Amino acid sequence: MKVLVLNAGSSSQKSCLYELSGPLTDLPPEPLWQAHIDWTHQAGVVEIHVQSQTGSLQKQLPSGSRLQVMGHMLETLWSGETQVVSHPLEIEAVGHRVVHGGEQYRESTRITSEVKAEIERLSAFAPLHNPASLEGIEAIEQVLPNVPQVAVFDTAFHSQLPLAAAVYPGPYEWFTEGIRRYGFHGISHAYCAQRTAAILGRDLGSLRLIICHLGNGCSL
Predict the structure, then answer these.
(1) What's the pLDDT score for residue 74?
(2) Minimal CA–CA distance to 91: which of 5, 24, 25?
(3) CB-side neighbour CA atoms (13 Å) of 43
């Protein structure tokens, strides 16, 4: 089964194609294909870097429609020197990292028109990220309209925060309007926690861990 994963950030787009042939292990499989789009490297220019089992590609494009740029990136899966599938329909599922799922989405969710509308509504809380995820979802709809897409929410990992930690010490109206601590980089924190437990040979529930996600955005 070939699964495409898209991770849309505030300044970049990272994507990988994996082939899954058995149970998942603690370590991710080597991707068949991986691509990185840099939207901010140079004014007016977008850089695309693609690496696959068949070749590599580095290209600069005029910065225009993000949908067009992502479409160009996706085409390198089935054409050119980085081709790893003979037809787009070999891809059987697509997963998207979505930063903000609000209080509604506490687990990975099949994307529907209703889910897209909610991701768009929650863009008020993640204006640099949720719109970029929606563009990735729409880019896939254009080339793979019948392939199931799944949203994996960064906020889901922290959805069990007790209210004493989630509610900010301010006017209660903030909370009723959705302004609360949601927690971010949850996908990264979940992986780091699970991987640490595996390396230590311990049950995750028995560990007390401090986990650091350090990048353009940071959280502890």
Answers:
(1) 94
(2) 5
(3) 0
Give tens-digit pLDDT for 72-130: 999 999 999 999 999 999 999 999 999 999 999 999 999 999 999 999 999 999 998 99
Residue 3 backbone phi and psi in degrees, to 5:
-125, 125
Is the pTM higher than 0.85? yes
**Catalytic residue numbers, as ranges:** 154
DSSP secondary structure letter of residue 142: H
Cβ proximity of 68 and 137 under 8 Å: no
Sort strands 45-52 and 33-42 into parallel, antiparallel or unpaired: antiparallel
CA distances from 128 to 10, 38, 59, 184, 217 (A): 5, 15, 24, 13, 12
